[in-house]
């Protein structure tokens, strides 16, 4: 079940859902707007030109209120908002159609697990032929919340728990179960 603005407001007031900073204008009928933060990370060039999933990937991270995203460039960014989901609520990250129509693709794997706490890292890609100026504080997407049928048996406590800023891939920490 998708949560309404009325339910979201009640959860925020009760502090069972934490989103900070939050302006009441961000609360929409069935979602909460998220804004672009001020940290951006790009993958460092490797000597081989190949990213190896078993090794830690190096990133260059900058803090700035403005970032120029060049055509066909990929950058990690972060939300201004720090969130803390209860163990019975999940969230979906959705980009804004207005930005997609400019060629700015906003993603983050699209899913936030119950129990997650931290800023959300966004993957941004400029599919346009022109550069796009990104500014901290601008609305870039929205979180749509859904209540689960029960509390999660194993709420999120993974490698991105508590992240702040544009956090690079930690895929090298994965392991295979054989």
What does the model show?
The mean pLDDT is 93. The longest helix has 10 residues, at 5-14. This protein has two helices and twelve strands. It has 178 residues and is mainly β. The protein has one domain (5-44, 60-151): Deoxyuridine 5'-Triphosphate Nucleotidohydrolase, Chain A (Distorted Sandwich). Strands 1, 2, 3, 4, 6, 7, 8, 9, 10 and 12 form a ten-stranded antiparallel sheet that branches.
Please give the structural blueprint.
Blueprint lengths: L4 H10 L3 E3 L6 E2 L2 E13 L15 E5 L2 E4 L4 E11 L4 E7 L1 H4 L3 E4 L3 E2 L4 E10 L5 E4 L3 E9 L31
Antiparallel strand pairs: 1-6, 2-3, 3-4, 3-6, 3-12, 5-11, 6-10, 7-9, 7-12, 8-10
**What is the share of helical residues?**
under 10%
Give the domain tally.
1
| β-strand amount | 35-45%
**What's the alpha carbon Rg, rounded to whole Å?**
17 Å
Helix-strand sequence? HEEEEEEEHEEEEE
CATH topology: Deoxyuridine 5'-Triphosphate Nucleotidohydrolase, Chain A
Oligomer: single chain
Q: Ranges with pLDDT <50 over ≥5 residues?
A: none
* Separate helix tally: 2
Class of secondary structure makeup: mainly beta
For the report, how would you describe the main beta sheet? 10 strands, antiparallel
Using the alpha-carbon principal axes, give the shape: globular
Q: Based on the structure given, which CATH architecture is correct?
A: Distorted Sandwich
The CATH homologous superfamily corresponds to Deoxyuridine triphosphatase (dUTPase)
CATH class: Mainly Beta
The overall strand count is: 12
The mean pLDDT is: 93
Please report the distance between the alpha carbons of the first and last residues: 36 Å
Catalytic activity: dCTP + 2 H2O = dUMP + NH4(+) + diphosphate
Subunit structure: Homotrimer.
GO molecular function: dCTP deaminase (dUMP-forming) activity; dCTP deaminase activity; nucleotide binding
EC number: 3.5.4.30
């Amino acid at each position: 079940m998708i949560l309404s603005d009325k339910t979201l407001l009640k959860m925020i007031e009760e502090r069972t859902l934490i989103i900070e900073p939050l302006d009441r204008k961000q609360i929409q009928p069935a979602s909460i707007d998220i804004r672009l933060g001020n940290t951006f990370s790009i993958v460092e060039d490797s000597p081989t030109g190949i990213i190896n999933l078993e090794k830690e990937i190096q990133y260059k991270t900058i803090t700035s209120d403005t970032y120029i995203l060049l055509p066909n460039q990929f950058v990690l960014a972060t939300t201004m908002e720090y969130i803390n989901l209860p163990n019975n609520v999940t969230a979906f990250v959705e980009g804004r159609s207005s930005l997609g129509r400019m060629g700015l693709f906003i993603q983050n794997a699209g899913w936030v697990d119950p129990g997650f706490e931290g800023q959300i890292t966004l993957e941004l890609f400029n599919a346009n032929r022109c550069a796009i100026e990104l500014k901290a504080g601008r609305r870039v997407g929205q979180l749509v919340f859904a209540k689960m049928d029960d509390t999660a048996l194993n709420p999120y406590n993974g490698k991105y728990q508590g992240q702040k800023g544009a956090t690079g891939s930690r895929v090298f920490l994965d392991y295979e179960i054989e």
